Amino acid sequence: MSPLAPAIERAGRPLFEDVAGDIDVSFEFFPPKTEKMEQTLWESVKTLEPLHPRFVSVTYGAGGSTRQRTHATVERITRETSLAAAAHLTCVEASREEIDEVAREYWAVGVRHIVALRGDPPELGKSFEAHPKGYANAAALVAGLKKVAPFEISVAAYPECHPDSPSKSADLDNLKAKIDAGADRAITQFFFSPDCFFRFRDAVAAAGIDAEIVPGILPVSNVAQTRKFAGLCGAAIPAWMDRLFEGLDELPAARQLVAATVAAELCGQLYAGGVRNFHFYTLNRAELAYAICHLLGVRPKTQTQEQAA
Asked: 17 an active-site residue?
């Protein structure tokens, strides 16, 4: 059993005292629906670009509902920035031929990284049903994508168990199947306790899964919205989080400060426990992710520093 973050045991010492900027980060965005949302997205992309993330990913709506917008966003990031863009791809409501064609289109525009997911049903409350001519699950999707091209592939992991899994053991079996099919790493769904991640990391190792497990971090500034997200992915929201945000509905700046504090503390404890890779669910806003990265010692690199590296 991994010990809890040593920082917890170092009462009286600053949580970020020993950070050395020795981490890698990545960021998730979603394709914008409106011109205003697109402006916000690109401001966030340009703000985070100087931090030199390993990659940035762009989500894919249920049933491929954002297929064109996802493709356009990924292509623009690839064309107009120095960032490595990863496109999300799901199994929902599409045949193998359709998914393979999307993958070929991504490869053609220079995309080399796919986040392969089973995907959520297009209608809330309904169970996932594989397309009769489609990929049955994420493991099959990973194997299929590897036949299309030598993509780098990330998959999802669930520290608190996916809602559709009958047990944690079955959930780990599913993760192992995805890694065995060719996935390079797993990115976890968000969580709010360092112990939750450390226990999951130990369970993954005990299951014989030898792959990078990257914690997914969601800085929370809207508890109601987060509760909706959590219901879809099996994440628990602790009661203390509700209390922290009470009375802040009309104080957005205060909400941002509380959100940054909560997420930064979680990241600091994970860092103290040996974690050196973080994936941030940005919700297309840069401020919180940037602030947390700064606390963890990540700084923009000058051109001279990049050349020296």
From this structure: no
